[in-house]
Amino acid sequence: MSYDSALTIFSPDGHLFQVEYAQEAVRKGTCAVGICCKDSVILGVEKKAALKLQDSRTMRKIHRLDEHIFLASAGLVADARVLVDMARVECQNHRLTVEDAPTVEFISHYIASVQQRYTQSGGRRPFGISTLIVGFDPNNTPKLFQTDPSGIYYQWKANAIGRNSKTVHEFLEKHYAQDMSESDGIKLAVKSLLEVVQTGAKNIEILVITKDGNRTPNIQEIEQTIKTIEAEKVEEAEKKANKRKPATPA
Amino acid sequence: MNRIAEQLTLSASDSPNNQLDGGSSNICGTGVQFELASGNNPAAFTQQYTDVKSERDARIKMDHGTTTLAFKFKHGVLVATDSRATSGNVIASQSVKKVIEINPYLLGTMAGGAADCSFWERVLGMECRLYELRNKKRISVAAASKLLANLVYRYKGMGLSMGTMVAGWDESGPGLYYVDSEGQRVVNDLFSVGSGSTFAYGVLDSHYRFDMSVDEAKDLGRRAIYHATHRDAYSGGIVRMYWVKEDGWVAYPLEDVGELYFRYHPEIKLTHAAESPLAAQRAA
Questions:
Q1: More confident residue, B211 or B23
Q2: Beta-carbon contacts below 8 Å between A and B
Q3: Residues 6+ away with beta carbon under 8 Å from A190
Q4: Which residues neighbour B276 within 8 Å (Cβ) at sequence distance 6 or greater?
Q5: Is B30 a catalytic residue?
Q6: Could you tell me which residues are beta bridge partners of residue B77?
Q7: Is A219 exposed, middle or buried (0-12, 13-18, 19+ CB in 10 A)?
Q8: Which residues neighbour A146 within 8 Å (Cβ) at sequence distance 6 or greater?
Q9: Contact assignment for A97 to B16 by CB distance below 8 Å
Q10: ipTM metric
Q11: Closest residue of A to B148, CA-based?
């Protein structure tokens, strides 16, 4: 008997297969990475190669939810659109009733609870996206949260979603340092995306958010960063090679 | 007009299925909802019976006899009220509690319908607690007053009578808002509500300074209530005073306005008779 056709049925060993299949859909989406630094938070996304006849400006992977809260998703783009709109309404609702900006945690909780609700009623399927929600709280602390189709949400110092996210995440675990500067953060984001995006700067988009605003480094800056990374790699390799060279006998 | 309020206040009848498109919000709790009069315009129906401005005999009369005041100052918010309740020409009680302790750091005052004030402020207390549990931090005075205003806005025109001040201390310092059943919600450093408010304003406006000490503020509040109870027939009884500071409010011992007369009245040189040459003659 198949336990995976209906959403509201558990399998005998406690799985909700529809939710797990939704997580599979996420693993097919383009990669996104988020990194918390000392005074900023960096979002990096893998941009799909622009098709010739398509206007690539209309392909948005990073969405703005409120003044200082942004969201990047991996998975079904249309589902992301719906969820982003719900989140935007909730942010404004919060501002209206509480007369204060929502915290990143608040909106992540909201998005996660919407995703959870869609795992618990009949006739609907879960959202096929995981999201990275980044931003600044009113007390000026940078935050990064992640949600997934099952409706969980956790705070992270750095994380990755989408295809090859496991590789990127392991890379981040090895190279993340507490309280990085903005430029180090950008370098780390680009480096980690380069692990899985082979084609270079034109397929990477970065967003830098500080407590005063946000900026999108243009393609030249990203290319410059890549050049710096490659130069550093060459330097590292040379150093290692020099170490291994045996001392010439006198 | 009330549709926006309906959307912003989750009613108890919202089952999980209905909420699929709305999302679950951490702002509004369960809310409390009453059945409204049937038909598409419940306000028009109830207005015939509760409209305070109309002269019809059939309307339900609401008494507003009271003096309540609150003002922000350097060390927090001072809240003072009288304690008289009147129905028509009868003094029903001289010891009414017109300050409602919403929670240990938020106070609400009562003017207008006692039942309306105490009921809705208790519901507000519940919403504030839910907010605290969901968001792991205290609710701001702005948000608390907004919740109350939204709660009663649903019933605008249906006969609620409530003029309340919400006082508290939150991250941005002392907070004071005036909310009423007409849907008004305004912010200011100083408010007085009720039939005796005009008298209280006179005293408050003459001596108010933001940088008062706590004792000066207490004296000003007490004095303003005393003068209002002296002149307004519908205010009297005892002065209830509270001071809202950073870590919550403190209540002060009650003082009978009759006794305050002997403290404050000699300060007022009211009657010329006492100082006139004739009086001196009579005394001699």
A1: B211
A2: 49
A3: A44, A204, A206, A222, A225, A226, A229
A4: none
A5: no
A6: B72, B244
A7: middle
A8: A34, A130, A131, A132, A133, A153, A154, A156, A159, A161
A9: no
A10: 0.75
A11: A97
